[in-house]
């Protein structure tokens, strides 16, 4: 390793060991000799881990001014904004990172999820749709993304778009039929499609099947969140 490479490796190790002050001291030492973007980013990360969110934001703002295309800075800034409860600011940062790296599956998914849970379904659908198109064959792709896209398509009344979500989930389930998670995700999307087609009885029968799994050991937070989302959709359609 070069000296700077060794310093970077050691500082990352210190951060992973929760030795934030030592990591920050090393990053500061690197900055004192040579203003490298990764060193300033390391300072910000150490500040975040130490709970100094406002300081981290100032450090990151300075870094972004100096290096406006250094996309890793936007990832960390987004985290800092979220920790401060500044969801609008975090959304702006995530969208900027997506603009800089439009093929990044994790960034598309992160931006889409924040937009979705903020209620900006149009932006969420835009991010999720791109994530699906560029990411389905990647290990970085999370199939919950397709389910959230399905919810967004339901809100839009987009039958064709929702059908594509169901088809995509059905195809991946066919390749891994033993996956209980994929089975649940696929059924959630299909319930939404049935509701959109006003086939309430069929939708309720499928929901009953999902409800029968509530006590399963693998019925986790994701599954519970999707179930609550379906119940909200049923309430919105006036289904008894």
Give an account of the 3D structure.
36% of the residues are buried. The chain has helices at 3-16, 20-33, 37-49, 53-66, 71-83, 87-100, 105-117, 121-135, 144-156, 159-175, 180-196, 200-211, 221-237. With 240 residues, the chain is mainly α. The radius of gyration is 22 Å and the shape is elongated. α3 (37-49) runs parallel beside α5, α9 (144-156) packs parallel to α11 and α10 (159-175) runs antiparallel to α11 (180-196). The chain is built from 13 helices and no strands.
Mean pLDDT: 90
Q: What class, by secondary structure content?
A: mainly alpha
Characterize the largest beta sheet: strand count, sense, and whether it forms a barrel: none
Give start-end ranges of low-pLDDT stretches: none
Rg over C-alpha atoms, rounded to the nearest angstrom: 22 Å
List the helices and strands and how they pair.
Elements (H helix, E strand, L loop, with lengths): L2 H14 L3 H14 L3 H13 L3 H14 L4 H13 L3 H14 L4 H13 L3 H15 L8 H13 L2 H17 L4 H17 L3 H12 L9 H17 L3
Helix pairs in contact: 1-2, 1-3, 2-3, 3-4, 3-5, 4-5, 5-6, 6-7, 7-8, 8-9, 9-10, 9-11, 10-11, 11-12, 11-13
């Amino acid at each position: 390793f070069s000296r700077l490479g060794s310093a970077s490796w050691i500082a990352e190790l210190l951060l992973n060991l929760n030795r934030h002050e030592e990591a920050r001291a090393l990053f500061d030492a690197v900055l004192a000799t040579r203003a490298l973007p990764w060193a300033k980013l390391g300072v910000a990360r150490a500040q975040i881990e130490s709970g100094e969110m406002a300081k981290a934001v100032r450090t990151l703002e300075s870094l972004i001014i100096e290096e406006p295309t250094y996309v890793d800075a936007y990832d960390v800034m987004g985290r800092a904004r979220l920790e401060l409860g500044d969801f609008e600011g975090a959304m702006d940062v995530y969208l900027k990172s997506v603009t800089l790296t439009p093929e990044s599956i994790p960034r598309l998914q992160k931006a889409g999820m924040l937009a979705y849970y903020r209620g900006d379904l149009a932006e969420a659908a835009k991010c999720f749709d791109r994530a699906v198109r560029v990411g389905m064959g990647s290990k970085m792709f999370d199939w919950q993304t397709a389910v959230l896209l399905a919810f967004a398509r339901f809100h839009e009344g987009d039958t064709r778009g929702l059908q594509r979500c169901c088809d995509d989930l059905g195809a991946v389930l066919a390749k891994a039929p033993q996956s209980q998670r994929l089975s649940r995700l696929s059924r959630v999307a299909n319930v939404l499609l049935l509701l959109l087609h006003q086939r309430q009885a069929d939708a309720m029968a499928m929901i009953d099947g999902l409800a029968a799994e509530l006590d399963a050991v693998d019925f986790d937070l994701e599954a519970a969140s999707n179930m609550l989302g379906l119940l909200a959709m049923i309430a919105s359609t006036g289904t008894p």
